[in-house]
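dumping this here before i forget
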Amino acid sequence: MEMVTVTIDGKQIQVPKTATVLEAAAAAGVKVPTLCYHPELRPEGACRVCMVEVAGARSLVASCVYPVNDGMVVKTNTPAVREARKTVVELLLANHPQDCLSCQRNLNCELQTIAGELGIRKVRFDGEKKNYPPDANNPSLVRDQNKCILCGRCIRACSERQGVHVYSFANRGFNTIVSPAFQQGLDEVACTYCGQCATVCPTAAIVEKDDTAAVWHALSDPKKHVVVQTAPAVRVALGEALGMEPGSIVTGQMVAALRRLGFDKVFDTDFTADLTILEEGSEFLERLNHGGKLPMITSCSPGWVNFIELMYPDLLDHLSTAKSPQQMFGALVKTYYAEKMGIDPKDIVSVSAMPCTAKKAEAVREEMKASGYQDVDYVITTRELGRMIQEAGIEFSKLPSEEFDAPMGIATGAGVIFGATGGVMEAALRTVAEIVTGKELECIDFHDVRGLTGIKEAKVQIGDLTVKVAVAHTLANARMLLDKIRKGEADYHFIEIMACPGGCIGGGGQPIATCADFRQKRINAIYECDQCSGLRKSHENPAVKELYDTWLGKPLGHKSHELLHTHYHPQKR
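structure:
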């Protein structure tokens, strides 16, 4: 790689010839403030907060898009630079709602943070405020144009990362907005509700729909039996929302906190992740052995399911009919659990804590009423759960570790790795291989399907059969695989697709990232949970075995088809 020499604030360093001034400054240990810039998205140079002086340039330059050259001299902290940055931020603040104390992103807002770092104590300008109604007619996300600073991050995340292209700029001048086509609501366009736009938004212009008030109300009702399930990715991210290091494993403290919030039972979605493997794995073998539609594709990521329903309805018969672990759990809580505990299902409130905003939309689908009721009543994200714990005044770091309740809190390591890209595939292979061969695997770690590569392929020998699998995360990568299937170029047997980068650990409802390698840290924590599990194969879960022996009968049986399987349909918006 060709290197060039650049001087940043008097310090001479060498950087790649392809670097920007912003990257060179970071290499020199100099922090340049940014708003429109995001390290995982194409640089835009729109906000001008990152302006610096470059010797020989006619004016200040936007460091995030300005390329370096050999011998360049840069100054990042001159009076002119500081005044220009302050002016830009003051102009943004002049048009911004002044409701920081009641804003959902208070103390976690990049605009607020930069204003503090630049020493802005008074806004010299009195700007006109916008007055757009909120876009809140969908179950998952709320958009507030009045808080939008036109950074364009959501546009780039939706197009580059997800390949969905919901957002674009509309209008001109002061009336410029970020909007779906024809200024429609997200419920009227081909939005998958993945929430990746919310994870990159620097303000509260896009946030998850807050369901905490409804959950608090249920918890305060003495006539209701309120149970909660927690997804595998929540236990490695909730600590972040409460000030801990990324990748902190807080399973036991999370259980303790949920009990202190007032939940009657605290269960683990990993239990039905194990159940999903039995059902989905059996379905895969059924298709493989009896000429069913291949490749079979996983169906546990609702953002991904929305995507194929909206964009590739002709390929829906490739989807597994198995419901997601969240929805399997919801159906069982109001049938199996209600019967076992002698509770009228109408008195059960089923809550799930998820890393995902699309799970909110999944819970209210018409198909998800197998119990005769809405199977999952409320979905709260990891961020919402963090806010509830803070609101309750719980000192999370001081909580003792507690165990999930039985029987729906008993799970294996295979269930927990659902939280990382490749995890569903690996969990399925652990079980399918032993069912087919009747022998115990010597090694149950399938490293070929792990990692953050966008699309991973592997060939797995199961007895006499060579199974070709693929794993993709982000919807842009999903599109690549679906295009291959359409063209008849995909010779895979089984595909796992997750809507979000890194899988559920990078979900749209997870804490807003504060470090560059946060996904890898969360993934490492997921696999550490797996390694520490006493049981690491779904078919060895004793509670799942008991469920089949005493109630369900067998995988793909009549009762499991009624409760645990569904069919998806084309969406038209």
